[in-house]
Amino acid sequence: MTYCVAIKLDAGLVLLSDTRTNAGLDNISRYGKMHSWEVPDERAVVLMTAGNLSITQGVITRLEKRIEMAAIDPECETILNADSLFRVAQMVGETMRDVQERHREGMEAQGASFDATVLVAGQRKGGSTRLFLVYSAGNFIEATRDTPFFQIGEHKYGKPILDRVITPDTPLEKAKLAACVSMDSTLRSNLSVGMPLDLAIIETDALKITERRRIEPDDKDFERLSDAWSKALNSAFHDLPHIF
Amino acid sequence: MTYCVAIKLDAGLVLLSDTRTNAGLDNISRYGKMHSWEVPDERAVVLMTAGNLSITQGVITRLEKRIEMAAIDPECETILNADSLFRVAQMVGETMRDVQERHREGMEAQGASFDATVLVAGQRKGGSTRLFLVYSAGNFIEATRDTPFFQIGEHKYGKPILDRVITPDTPLEKAKLAACVSMDSTLRSNLSVGMPLDLAIIETDALKITERRRIEPDDKDFERLSDAWSKALNSAFHDLPHIF
């Protein structure tokens, strides 16, 4: 499995993913799930993937191939020249559908799961920040003020904290902490999610990735956060009134 | 779905279950998942069930039928005269296997899921408190000091808090709060788990259910706990140091 979380705030986008991929418990590898592109002062796009790795790698490779082709043929539409982030999400969905169709028959015969999801986040000049969740079938939904975050992969362990603290006006720094706390809860409870982590921030109207950080297993800041949260949670729990 | 949690402490057993059953999102009903029996000063046994309702009801009905039969034929082995809690878990497993076999062919033809799990908790005179998790296949595992709690059904949302606060020497009152907080997180994040709740406590060596309580949706104590936890969690989060 995997765990990726994307939060859309008035102040910008907070994106966090793990790097664990497994085919069974005895076959664990490390693959980044976060892929980012920038056109300085014009757009920043980040994709995060979960599900069947052969499918999601196929999607990313095809999207990058188009970017290479556009260097030769400027007519070629890519996620870096599409006229809106909505169109970027559509292109990710279309690419997903192509890859799925190519492999469906063979994978069905093997009984393999071809489930895959992609989070599409970014902003282009003249547009607002957008966040989409693209499904295996290529269809997609967008985050709104009512639902300002999306999670893919092992989403359940880390959902309660996000449900409680995230609103569209949460400051970026707080949302970054919330994403890390949500990831920390997931890491503690589920072996199929693992360090290192990839964190990216796209501040509203910056039109670039304002922060990009790989959090390694021995990252002192993440360790301090994890310890502080553990202590805070324990003391919050022990201070609960004896109601029952 | 469903959510049931059972915690085995030095001080006794804490058991909590919801009452929601659904066949699709548009077919929601209320069924107690907690079933209890007592032989005063000799034993207390509580079963909690998750999964296919026709299977779990089948298991409970057969176990009760044997108890009725034993009133006529004292040779008949039941969960109330079995010579150990281990044997009780075995009987639940055997009954599970019988019910599964009876319905497997028909259910397979319908593509229905016959997945079902049962938590078996209790104590008999001369024995210690025991907690078992019985799987669909009738096999089972026992809680130990390393893993002092079991969850069945929608277990992921409510696992992080238990992972952090439960150890075998946690007092009963604290474990009761932890079970309620774990349930509260699950209720907030997942529609397939719903009030009212059933709570039972079996204190070590009491050989009876020392507390049994149905927590209705308007239960003032549960509301206060839920609010207190929400506030404590939010303030714990907002007091985190700005590490990143």
TrEMBL record, chains A, B:
Keywords: Hydrolase, Protease, Proteasome. GO terms for biological process: proteolysis. InterPro entries: Ntn_hydrolases_N, UCP009120_prtse. Gene3D superfamilies: Glutamine Phosphoribosylpyrophosphate, subunit 1, domain 1. GO terms for molecular function: peptidase activity. The keyword Cell cycle does not apply. One of its GO terms (cellular component) is proteasome complex. This is Proteasome-type protease. It comes from Hoeflea prorocentri.
